[in-house]
Amino acid sequence: MEINGVEIEDTFAEAFPIKIGRVLITAVNEKWARVAAQEATGFGTSVIMCPAEGGIERVASPDETPDGRPGVYIQICTFGYKSLEEQLLERLGQCVLTAPTTAMFNGLPDAEKQFDTGFKLKFFADGTESETEVGGRKAYKIPMMEGDFITEHSMGGVKGVAGGNFFIFGDCQMSALNAAEAAVEAIEKVEGSITPFPGGIVASGSKPGANKYTFLKATANEKFCPSIRDQIEDTQIPEGVGAVYEIVINGVSEEAISSAMSAGIKASVKVPGIKKISAGNYGGNLGPYKFNLHDLV
Amino acid sequence: MEINGVEIEDTFAEAFPIKIGRVLITAVNEKWARVAAQEATGFGTSVIMCPAEGGIERVASPDETPDGRPGVYIQICTFGYKSLEEQLLERLGQCVLTAPTTAMFNGLPDAEKQFDTGFKLKFFADGTESETEVGGRKAYKIPMMEGDFITEHSMGGVKGVAGGNFFIFGDCQMSALNAAEAAVEAIEKVEGSITPFPGGIVASGSKPGANKYTFLKATANEKFCPSIRDQIEDTQIPEGVGAVYEIVINGVSEEAISSAMSAGIKASVKVPGIKKISAGNYGGNLGPYKFNLHDLV
Amino acid sequence: MEINGVEIEDTFAEAFPIKIGRVLITAVNEKWARVAAQEATGFGTSVIMCPAEGGIERVASPDETPDGRPGVYIQICTFGYKSLEEQLLERLGQCVLTAPTTAMFNGLPDAEKQFDTGFKLKFFADGTESETEVGGRKAYKIPMMEGDFITEHSMGGVKGVAGGNFFIFGDCQMSALNAAEAAVEAIEKVEGSITPFPGGIVASGSKPGANKYTFLKATANEKFCPSIRDQIEDTQIPEGVGAVYEIVINGVSEEAISSAMSAGIKASVKVPGIKKISAGNYGGNLGPYKFNLHDLV
Amino acid sequence: MEINGVEIEDTFAEAFPIKIGRVLITAVNEKWARVAAQEATGFGTSVIMCPAEGGIERVASPDETPDGRPGVYIQICTFGYKSLEEQLLERLGQCVLTAPTTAMFNGLPDAEKQFDTGFKLKFFADGTESETEVGGRKAYKIPMMEGDFITEHSMGGVKGVAGGNFFIFGDCQMSALNAAEAAVEAIEKVEGSITPFPGGIVASGSKPGANKYTFLKATANEKFCPSIRDQIEDTQIPEGVGAVYEIVINGVSEEAISSAMSAGIKASVKVPGIKKISAGNYGGNLGPYKFNLHDLV
């Protein structure tokens, strides 16, 4: 199967369950909503050694935000609701409450699971806080040096999906990189998903465990490493491929992952020099979710 | 004392010791060095609830980097060397090794304290790694999906200073915000210092402890909160001041802090609408370092 | 009448007819579509002394572009179709054909007026060009150093509207500036309109003609100049207003102007420190189009 | 000769004389200095069909600007001083005076040729203007809607050099593009030169005149067009080259061109996938200046 002359391999991405908190950060302009969002979701690429995975989902237009200002949705992801609650409190308290002109609202107001993160953060006001309502949402006004910070009472969480992915094979590194950038740009317009790695891109796609250094939980996936192609018997790097980037996707539902993978793949194959699209799976041992590339595009 | 018609209060910033690791991240262009740097220093505003403080120090021109590519210096800060070593391993391993086209080099090659972070990260290659030399630095080549990742063997750390600061009083919130942005822009050109808060700016300047909610380590500094000015007997908000932003600065030395405060103050008073520059201190109880504003400008 | 506590003056913007060409520029990513668009619409703020007015209208998603790549719509505006045809040829030939990875398509394929700009530009290929079809559009393939440049055969033009506008009164300059930025950000999401001034904002709102220097076609509108408020008898600057910015809007139809003014005003009043929204008119002498602010919001 | 494993061809760039005006634009922050600069130098890639060539030279730090604010230097280039004076008046009057928070200063205060552009623009104030001095420069204060616009009295011009250039051959289009981007990023840090094409890059390197369509002044240089390599007998495209980008450089002196070419070439060969660096010359018929690549690097 081909799109735009690029082979789409007949394979699937394997993904696993995760808990996701979704928050809407608004600010005086999109720039400052983004800055707060980046700080709050930083050090958040992989739960292997980060306290959470996180990323910017999409921009929210003033029409759809409770306070009528521009905003961005972020997601914070951990394996359990307890750690998610902690991470929300720490990341929102340290990186959004502290950021200029921001406010924060529940990104999943209808979810069953609700955390009272905003209620807890109001204590920062040391007794000067007050309850308020913004766009129908129960919120608090926290007097600060810059003026009043607004936070909604609750932030919602859901059972989501982590590790959706696809691989972009380029004839050279810059082709693969630019295609990966195009994919991330496209996915940022899709509802419900994030690409938690730096700039949305994984340069170091890994396998679970190790062949040699067995004390490690994950190591480089040597079958997909072009520079050692000649040394690896079962290399998956076709001739003429100079680099591979992986896009890893988390989302609030299987549909969110599917939509993101589809948008990302379609965008990446438009970049000149792309040879193949594949995906990462581990014989079905990593997780229960499967996303067949041929079903997506 | 006045600069550009703006009152510089006769006061001082109070700061405290911290341990700082400094790393040079290079990439195919400044954009990708920055993206990796932001991810690696994210969730890093204050050690109160973040695992480390961190930020981008300055851009490094290709002339001064071991591999001749554009780069940025970052700093990671924690109270002890043990936690610093852990944070360096986790943040560089998860956020720089994984980022497209990056390499990483020791930002303090002459420091007494050296961590073998690069040596430890090479195990990710699962046996396919090799030793190399880049610009006279002992380094490792780690084959990955995108090609080879280069990391220097060691990353250096020093005893530095945290909590350098100044306050910008604006006639309205946007004046104060734009002045704070100008200050951060100027400080990013100074050697040796970072501004760890989101976009370099603190919207929520705090006091140690609390008046009412004594279970908290830090709460809003109500004396500097304009929206409750009429309720606070000893308010420090002069009439006509609508907002205050704080710039917090960490640096590898007292000189780095002084230079950054000086550059930041000079830049901020150029923005129309700035009424006063002050600084935060707590009667000398917070830390041993003092930076008199009048000595700096 | 007030929105968000900001007075909307009971007045109208006065606008006049202009001819508009609309072009869709696509590229390997949004960045390069934007770079080409900025170059092509630069030196294009006002037909008073620029050869044309121009600006970026909005981003086009890959779904809606003939080649499935990201793009931006631009508009080029002059008083007559003859000068419009010349400006399209010069600006597209010098600033889009020359830009990396771009292609260009007709932004008004259904308009009555069509220019064969693409047909003329194909001669650059000096005999090596060929006809092709992209997304159902008749186009040419022009071999170049970077590869093949694609241009559609025709570019459409319409009778549009120029000089739609509103004024943002801020308590200080930075409030007004940030509100103007928010307005431009919002208008860029609206179909059919551009804000041709630098970054979309006019710092120097003018009146037709002059009181003193009558050799000039337009001079500063002294009634709206805060720094000389005390010298101007019939000043329109209320007490407490420190700065005024004007947003000037051109569009393909009256509806496009209305939508843009509405979105821009709603966004700007959300910024703290905004005191009033007004608009520019000259007793109905400048042009036949009138946009009442109270009808818009 | 090779740098970083990339062949530097033993050839030269041929360049020709031009007149250059240089202006320093300052603003409340670098963003707004850049926005005004882009507007003022837009529609300015080549004098073949643009009214002038123009571009941003480099960022100016607050330390070196007369008003202590951040700024950027721009250059405007035409063949004669008369057209240069007109272009300065039109471009500065329409694109800098109109831009938020900007001021403008003479970028060549010691040049023999001086234009009284600032003096002429002060008439916009319609009698409310006044003379002032900023950082030792004679200037005017022009009351406007946003506040006071400051312009220095004179703007200087010199005999400079246009058409300095080099070619970047990449194994694929994205390698060549990213190398060209790296070159432009490096050249922007060099004193005295600009890269007038969109984003600094030429996708459509041309030859003077035409083989077939002799009514054109310049057409595609088919010898350097990869997609028709097989049809062109004396093609200059080596096997394995997928795309070529040209960087065109104007500067205030031969030294400025040499420094820029050197910085740009060194930066571009660091990008993976670059095969060769060459340059454009036309048997010495185009102009008197020659820049040998081997002398530069």
UniProtKB/TrEMBL annotation, chains A, B, C, D:
<feature type="domain" description="Formylmethanofuran: tetrahydromethanopterin formyltransferase Ftr C-terminal">
    <location>
        <begin position="147"/>
        <end position="296"/>
    </location>
</feature>
<dbReference type="GO" id="GO:0030270">
    <property type="term" value="F:formylmethanofuran-tetrahydromethanopterin N-formyltransferase activity"/>
</dbReference>
<dbReference type="InterPro" id="IPR002770">
    <property type="entry name" value="ForMFR_H4MPT_ForTrfase_C"/>
</dbReference>
<dbReference type="Pfam" id="PF01913">
    <property type="entry name" value="FTR"/>
</dbReference>
<comment type="function">
    <text>Catalyzes the reversible transfer of a formyl group from formylmethanofuran (formyl-MFR) to tetrahydromethanopterin (H(4)MPT) to produce 5-formyl tetrahydromethanopterin (5-formyl-H(4)MPT) and methanofuran (MFR).</text>
</comment>
<dbReference type="GO" id="GO:0019386">
    <property type="term" value="P:methanogenesis, from carbon dioxide"/>
</dbReference>
<keyword id="KW-0808">Transferase</keyword>
<comment type="pathway">
    <text>One-carbon metabolism; methanogenesis from CO(2); 5,10-methenyl-5,6,7,8-tetrahydromethanopterin from CO(2): step 2/3.</text>
</comment>
<keyword id="KW-0012">Acyltransferase</keyword>
<protein>
    <recommendedName>
        <fullName>Formylmethanofuran--tetrahydromethanopterin formyltransferase</fullName>
        <ecNumber>2.3.1.101</ecNumber>
    </recommendedName>
</protein>
<keyword id="KW-0963">Cytoplasm</keyword>
<dbReference type="Pfam" id="PF02741">
    <property type="entry name" value="FTR_C"/>
</dbReference>
<dbReference type="InterPro" id="IPR023447">
    <property type="entry name" value="ForMFR_H4MPT_ForTrfase_fd-like"/>
</dbReference>
<dbReference type="GO" id="GO:0005737">
    <property type="term" value="C:cytoplasm"/>
</dbReference>
<dbReference type="GO" id="GO:0006730">
    <property type="term" value="P:one-carbon metabolic process"/>
</dbReference>
<dbReference type="InterPro" id="IPR014053">
    <property type="entry name" value="ForMFR_H4MPT_ForTrfase"/>
</dbReference>
<comment type="similarity">
    <text>Belongs to the FTR family.</text>
</comment>
<keyword id="KW-0484">Methanogenesis</keyword>
<feature type="domain" description="Formylmethanofuran: tetrahydromethanopterin formyltransferase Ftr N-terminal">
    <location>
        <begin position="1"/>
        <end position="144"/>
    </location>
</feature>
<keyword id="KW-0554">One-carbon metabolism</keyword>
<comment type="subunit">
    <text>Homotetramer.</text>
</comment>
<dbReference type="InterPro" id="IPR022667">
    <property type="entry name" value="ForMFR_H4MPT_ForTrfase_N"/>
</dbReference>
